[in-house]
Specification:
The complex is a heterodimer of chains A (110) and B (121).
Chain A: E1 9-12, E2 18-23, E3 35-39, E4 46-49, E5 63-68, E6 71-76, E7 85-93, E8 98-101, E9 105-109
Parallel strand pairs in A: 1-9
Antiparallel strand pairs in A: 2-6, 3-4, 3-7, 5-6, 7-8, 7-9
Chain B: E1 3-7, E2 11-12, E3 18-25, E4 33-39, E5 45-52, E6 57-59, E7 67-72, E8 77-82, E9 91-100, E10 106-111, E11 115-119
Parallel strand pairs in B: 2-11
Antiparallel strand pairs in B: 1-3, 3-8, 4-5, 4-9, 5-6, 7-8, 9-10, 9-11
Classes of the chains: A mainly beta (110), B mainly beta (121).
Chain lengths: 110, 121
């Protein structure tokens, strides 16, 4: 059971928009920045979003992040087949004094 | 862009010590935080710990003090040792840089390809 809660799966048709939620608490998301990672099967995770909504250079602007209170969201617009992957949120937890990851969300492009 | 390459034995016997090394190229390990993150088969990501180039380190409390890390700035490498392993430690172990950027934000911006370690007799 992860401290950060994500839906196990989401799906969407090509060109649609999907969102993935990440729910936490005041000791993690509420007080620290959230990052998002994409993991294609068989590959290492890749940074998509840092500090809630900042995109590293080279990451498509179809990916956007937001945070409100103790919850964060990753939105993917204009879905493409290549977006099919697992997505993880991550934050520091002040109480656990540990980096924590969400359980991951599998995105299926229909 | 910094690149990370993990290496180490793919098979470790129960109760023995798992040892992995990550070699960093394209940048110095000095002035950065370096981490290990693992992923059990079919499961999610779990942070193991990080080390700063000075040697200060922090670990996931769930590992119950079984983990240690070291850094060798002359070789631009950092290492993980995990004692008294069990089958539950079977996982792909990723080394990664935890970047602390100029605005004070932390995130894992560069990852190694991952090393599969199986704990079995």
């Amino acid at each position: 059971q992860s401290v950060l809660t994500q839906p196990p799966s989401v799906s969407g048709a090509p060109r649609q928009r999907v969102t993935i939620s990440c729910s936490g608490s005041t000791s993690n998301i509420g007080d620290n920045g959230v990052s998002w990672y994409q993991q294609v099967p068989g590959k290492a995770p890749k940074l998509l979003i840092f500090h809630d909504g900042q995109r590293p250079s080279g990451v498509s602007d179809r990916f956007s992040g937001s945070k409100f209170g103790t919850s964060a969201s990753l939105a993917i617009s204009g879905l493409q087949a290549e977006d099919e992957a697992d997505y993880y949120c991550e934050a520091w937890d002040d109480s656990l004094k540990s980096v924590i990851f969400g359980g991951g969300t599998k995105l299926t492009v229909l | 862009q910094v690149q990370l390459q993990g290496s180490g034995p793919g098979l470790v016997k129960p109760s023995e010590t798992l040892s992995l090394t990550c070699t960093v190229s394209g940048g110095s390990i000095s002035g950065n935080y370096w981490s290990w993150i693992r992923q059990s088969p079919g499961k999610g990501l779990e942070w193991v710990g990080y080390i700063y180039d000075t040697g200060s380190s922090k670990f996931n409390p769930s590992l119950k003090s079984r983990a240690t890390m070291s850094a060798d700035t002359s070789k631009n490498q950092f290492s993980l040792r995990l004692r008294t392993v069990t089958a539950a430690d079977t996982a792909i172990y990723y080394c990664a840089r935890r970047l602390y950027d100029s605005r004070g934000h932390y995130y894992f911006d560069s990852w190694g390809q991952g090393t599969l370690v199986t704990v079995s007799s």
